From TrEMBL:
Belongs to the glycosyltransferase 22 family. Its EC number is 2.4.1.-. Residues 8-21 have a biased composition (Polar residues). This is Mannosyltransferase. Its main location: endoplasmic reticulum. One of its GO terms (molecular function) is alpha-1,2-mannosyltransferase activity.
Amino acid sequence: MRQRKNLDVSSTDSKTNIPKSSKNNKFTHPLLKKVFFLCLFVRFVNAFLVQTYFNPDEHWQALEVAHRISFGYGHLTWEWEKGIRSYLHPVIFAGLYKILAFFHLDKPWFMIRTPRLLQSIFSAFGDFYLFKLSQEIFGDHVAKFALFAQLTNWFMFFCITRTLSNSLETVLTVVSLYYWPCIRPTASKISRGSRKWGLATAALACAIRPTSAITWIYIGLLELYLTRDKLKFVLLEVIPIGTLIMGLTFLVDRWMYGTWVLVPLNFLKFNFLSAGGDYYGTHVWHWYFTQGFTVMVFTFLPFSLAGIFKSKQWKLSGLIAWCLAIYSLLGHKEFRFVLPVLPIALMFSGYWLATIGWPDKSNGRGKRSPSSHDRCSGKLQLAVLFLAVSNIPMAFYMSMVHQRGTEDVMNYLSVEADSGKVKSVLFFTPCHATPYYSTLHRNLPMRFLDCTPRIEPLFIPFCSDEKGALDESDQFLVDPAGFATEFAKNWSIPSHIVLFDFQEKLLKDFLALHNFEEIKRFFHAHFKVDRELQASVAVYTLKGQ
């Protein structure tokens, strides 16, 4: 039978002389408790500082669904009608909303802030387990720098405390990797139940987001290749644990949908077999390598690449390459899809930083010359300063400034609605451009422009342009004034209209004709992203109201 290859676990790394902590007291060391509370504090602050709009799914596929579960109203997008989303992720936040309602805390401030605070707790566990994983593979010295990279990387700060399913998937991925024997340098001191915990967490990640299977196919095959008890692994661990987690997920979906729905199968049909995701835009095959993942890693990139080649931990670096390659085969690409492997890349940058800060022994006598130590210390300080200066301002700007208007406008309307000043709202914006009932938290009539793709029975979407019929959102963007004029022929006049400044300029006459006046304006962005510049968001109300 094939034996696992045990690597050297001596007090220092044989190539870099980076010190490794004792394996005997690692898990009871007080440092771990301090590390966790540091992570928790940073992520709490992180959650409060994130005040911008990133991706509609943060609200429309999580909080909006949770709000409907908890309070009986909230909009369900077409994905929920077609059964390609699992309720497992939204029910977490539904539980939070129920707790807030029980204690009569379902007020605007709590409804807006607490979901991200809950996610920040999950995120802190992800940071903590990345530290522990780095500890296991490289030792304490590297773990400290890996944690530094995780906490200061701009995209991790920008995204990990958001209520996206990708954020929780990332946490579960890091936690699970810690428990897999095939990832560790040696499995000799790992507990028997460790792999079972890894399997359960991996299955949970797949239940929440089926595309997580891309990661676990790689890890599972690696474990199958390295383990001695292959039949036991498959028959007594993979199948029973996978069946249990998926069975519980099916029961949750059966309860919420009211009928049996195989979400993973529907998800596979839409996103892979029919390329349904392409309806939302496509990118060139190399986008993750040349733009997407590169932007996410940002200035940590050269350090990550150097760490990969210096450490020679090909199993983990292979996981990054595998995920980027498989996701590159899909036409529709987004930054958040590859978020689960970002912590691994940052861990490698931590490895390289540790090598900078720990000079090689000189003269073969185990001593380091003062000049060598000073040089390495100076390089390390410059590297840390460079990474902090290039990432932290970027994190703050993207989290607190860029595209904040659509969050601010709903926060404002929620306070106004709480005091009875809002009767109904019309959004003359691209669809899903703002949060919705989960932020307003009042069962008032609201209307946004629909952008539901036309779906055939087998979930094969086709571009509505090809059939000669644009959706409402596209019609409005093509001709704002013409669309608004036709729309107003059959509307129940709203008390408030929300729109971006670009369309506002084209609707001045329309708004004046229908007796609307501006009452509030919110800054949104300094530069455009995927369409014309949306510099501000304006709120109009009927005169005299």
